[in-house]
Amino acid sequence: MAGNGPPPKENAVRRNAVDLSHLEGDDVPDKVKKLFKRDGYSVATCRWWDTWVESEQSESFKATDWQRLQMLAPLVEAYFRRPGHNALAEIRQNESLLGATVTDRMRLCMNKGESNKQNNDGKPDSYPENVKDMELYRSLGGA
């Protein structure tokens, strides 16, 4: 069975900086964030769209991401009218690429939290709690 590899070690220290520049949102015009021909869609589809507009990950969306959601809206509407596993699979796949679930956001490194921040010197803010001798830790290749 395919997967994303083994889980990381509990006491692993990341020494390479994580590039989060892709999370910086562009100034996307408000008209791009509006559902095209909204009156033609059901309440459920409009609610789906509004959920995406108000989501935290949409702050980093570019115009192409909004275009992807616009293209997905008719498929979501069709699914709400007549549910089927094929439509749901396509919706799930597209939403996954936009960071719909916690796992998707972790895979896409969309976490803006404090855990990804490091000092200017590239050293981590804290060391693993099982390290007793900091000099020995550093001499063995630790931060």
Automatic annotation (TrEMBL):
Residues 1-20, 111-132 are annotated as: Disordered. This is Terminase small subunit. Pfam families: Terminase_7. Coiled coil: none annotated. Residues 11-20, 120-132 have a biased composition (Basic and acidic residues). It comes from the Bacteria.
